[in-house]
């Protein structure tokens, strides 16, 4: 399958800031035809969209207000009506909320699964689609376990298991749709800078004596393009410490 970013349409959830915005920016730098920003924050989304249009061209970026829990059907209809299809979907929206298990699991796991299945069916060769790529964002904490965030660990581990299964080579042979997992390392974002950890736990505990390495969002933006170009369906990739993306076995 074609693994060049240039000329593709890419949609990224949770992309008005942080990791998602870095991914959108990287896709634009590498020549996507259109980047679709999906986010709840309408003010920030429109602001960043305007900046990117000024830099990369008015017709290359669009923003749609989107709550991944409620707006899948509306966004799907809008995208297919206005743009016909997407070549790349990145399910990036996520939370770290150890005070609310349902919110954490619904956003980090259930929404990822629902969005994947919806666009997978649209992309699938078996349904008359032309194939495509879905990248689901998990975390190093989907497999590297601490005492700080049991709900978050569970939600991100679920993403890995789901993505490896639906992205299995047997499914890819039928559908032409790659499903890949991205596990970012510890990255400076609002989610990481203001975490809502398990009772009595703190960010200092996570950093103290830890082998985990911090990185900037641009490293993950670069990594998403590397993964798109290299990854086989069902594989899991790590971007940590600003190094190039690497395939991992989990």
Concise overview:
With 250 residues, the chain is an alpha/beta fold. It contains nine helices and eight strands. It has an eight-stranded mixed beta sheet with strand order 3-2-1-4-5-6-7-8, with helices on both faces.
Features:
250 residues; alpha/beta; globular
Can you walk through the features of this model?
- By secondary structure, the protein is of the alpha/beta class.
- It contains nine helices and eight strands.
- An eight-stranded mixed beta sheet has the order 3-2-1-4-5-6-7-8, sandwiched between helices.
- Helix 1 packs across helix 9 and helix 4 packs parallel to helix 5.
- The longest helix has 23 residues.
- The radius of gyration is 17 Å and the shape is globular.
- State the separation between the terminal residues, measured CA to CA: 25 Å
Q: Could you give the count of β-strands?
A: 8
Count of DSSP-assigned helices: 9
Arithmetic mean pLDDT: 93
Give the topology string: H per helix, E per strand.
EHEHEHEHEHHEHHHEE
What Rg do the Cα atoms give? Answer: 17 Å
Uncertain stretches: none
**Biggest beta sheet attributes:** 8 strands, mixed
Widest sheet: strand ordering: 3-2-1-4-5-6-7-8
* Class inferred from helices and paired strands: alpha/beta
What fraction, in percent, of the residue positions are helical? 40-55%
Oligomeric form: single chain
Percent of residues in β-strands: 15-25%
Estimate the global geometry from the Cα principal axes: globular
């Amino acid at each position: 399958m074609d693994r060049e970013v240039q000329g593709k349409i890419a949609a990224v959830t949770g992309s008005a800031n942080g990791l998602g915005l870095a991914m959108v920016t990287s896709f634009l730098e590498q020549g996507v035809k259109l980047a679709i920003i999906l986010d709840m924050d309408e003010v920030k989304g429109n602001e960043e969209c305007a900046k990117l249009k000024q830099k990369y061209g008015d017709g290359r970026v669009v923003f749609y207000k989107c709550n991944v829990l409620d707006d899948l059907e509306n966004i799907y209809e809008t995208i297919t009506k206005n743009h016909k299809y997407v070549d790349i979907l990145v399910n990036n929206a996520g939370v770290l909320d150890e005070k609310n298990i349902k919110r954490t699991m619904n956003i980090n796991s259930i929404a990822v699964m629902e969005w994947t299945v919806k666009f997978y069916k649209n992309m699938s060769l078996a349904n008359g689609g032309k194939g495509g790529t879905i990248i689901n964002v998990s975390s190093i904490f989907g497999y590297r376990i601490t005492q700080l965030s049991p709900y978050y660990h569970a939600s991100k581990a679920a993403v890995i298991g789901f993505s490896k299964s639906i992205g299995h080579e047997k499914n890819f042979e039928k559908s032409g749709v790659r499903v890949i997992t991205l596990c970012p390392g510890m990255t400076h974002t609002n989610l990481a800078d203001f975490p809502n950890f398990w009772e009595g736990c703190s960010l200092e505990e996570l950093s103290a004596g830890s082998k985990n390495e911090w990185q900037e969002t641009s490293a993950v933006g670069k990594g998403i393009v590397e993964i798109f170009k290299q990854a086989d369906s069902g594989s899991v990739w790590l971007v940590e410490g600003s190094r190039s993306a690497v395939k991992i076995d989990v």
